[in-house]
Amino acid sequence: MTEKELLKDQPKQLYRISQLINDEMLSLDDLSEIIPGIMHVNSKKDLSIQYVSQIGCDMLGYSLEEIKTLGSKLFEKHVSEYTRKNLFSKVLRELGKDDPNYVIPFFQDWQYKKDENPLYHFTSTKILNANQTISISLFPQTIELLSNTMNSLFGINKIMDKYFQPYNSLTKREKEILKHLGLELTRKEIGNLLFIDEKTVKKHCENIYRKLGTSKRIELEKIANALSIF
Predict the structure, then answer these.
(1) pLDDT for 169-215, tens place per residue?
(2) CA-to-CA distance for 175 and 147, rounded, in angstroms?
(3) Closest by Cα among 101, 167, 155 to 133
(4) Phi, psi of 132, deg, nearest 5
């Protein structure tokens, strides 16, 4: 698998992890022992860290309680001003769209120890619940390891693998309608549920078919079942 393919694979792995957590199949602590790299839960409001796997605590040299106490001040100590003011602002804007199925990938820098060069991570972030986000931050050498670990333990089904990228391009409303299509509701029933005109639902459906590259209703139902987690 090429580096570009591996970078595309990580958001799928995070999506699968969030499914496992929301389905209460595994806890954060269970997953933190399995997942290579740093798994962390942040405040949706200001990105302050509320949970981080042990490797993150060890690298920062703080206990989890100390990290939680520092809140967003932790970033002032360990993250560049550019990342704090520009990159994090963009991430917060994306989270403000309030789409629980949208995964945000980005690179960020962290300086773990004073007078040392910063280390760059590839991070994928998504909404976990109403108040929190969940993320995985990987060093380049651990990106392939994450894919191999997740695929061997939990797998990524063929539908998710094929449609994850186009699914992520759907708007929040389109994802909502797709979920209802997966429940085999008619356009009229969906319109009544969402308080929108049936013609509007039809237009959204056309966009969904186009973006997902399929014209089969049964395929949409499979995609909805594989990817709609809320």
Answers:
(1) 999 999 999 999 988 899 999 999 999 999 999 999 999 999 999 98
(2) 25
(3) 101
(4) -130, 155
